[in-house]
Amino acid sequence: MIYRWVKKIVLLFLIGCIIIVLINNALFLKLFYPYPHQELIVTSSNEYKVDPYIVLAIIRTESRFFPKANSPVGAKGLMQIMPETGRWIAQQIKMTEFEDDKLYLPNYNIPMGIWYISYLDSVFQGDLIKVLAAYNAGEHKVKRWISEGIWTGRQQDIEQIPYLETREYIDKVLFDYHIYKRIYKKK
Q1: Which CATH number fits domain 37-184: 1.10.530.10, 3.30.9.30, 3.50.50.60, 3.30.470.10?
Q2: CA 81 to chain centroid
């Protein structure tokens, strides 16, 4: 009887050790945290001075890297850009002939999304938490929450954000961001 319990404990210990090794193995993690469109992401991130790992975390959270992704509210593509936002971004970056369906094309969607992150970064003076909240809920909502005292704008006060989706979004993107940095950042 004791022998069976010892065998089970040893087996559980070995399984636990294997799981720990896999979780800490970058090659294994890359299966779940891919880096597609690397050249496009790096080029656009450098151009607009955005951390490519935050871009990856946003894409993973928004679309799971499915270029034809659609949200229930109408956001499109890898970075889930709303057509109205896409039209506005196209005007800001002097892009001619904007078409909603082009938001499904990675070489169109990714640079626009990265430009938008850069824009939000300048609006919120480099505060990543506010940038992520605005990317999800909208710039004007975040400004209103802060100005009306609904949210302090600080990470430790995320629970004050009135939208559960936005609170969960920030947590998810930050989690993925730290994993992407750990896996891909050059030592």
Answers
A1: 1.10.530.10
A2: 13
Q: Which bin fits 61, alpha (ψ -120 to 50), beta or left (φ > 0)?
A: alpha
Residue 77: CB atoms within 10 A of its CB come to: 28
Q: How confident is the model over 79-123, as pLDDT tens digits?
A: 999 999 999 999 999 998 899 999 999 999 999 999 999 999 999
Domains of the chain, residue spans: 1-32, 37-184
Q: What whole-number distance in Å separates Cα of residue 129 and Cα of residue 33? A: 21
Residue 67, CB half-sphere, CA atoms under 13 Å: how many? 12
Question: Could you give the 3-state DSSP secondary structure of residue 81?
Answer: strand
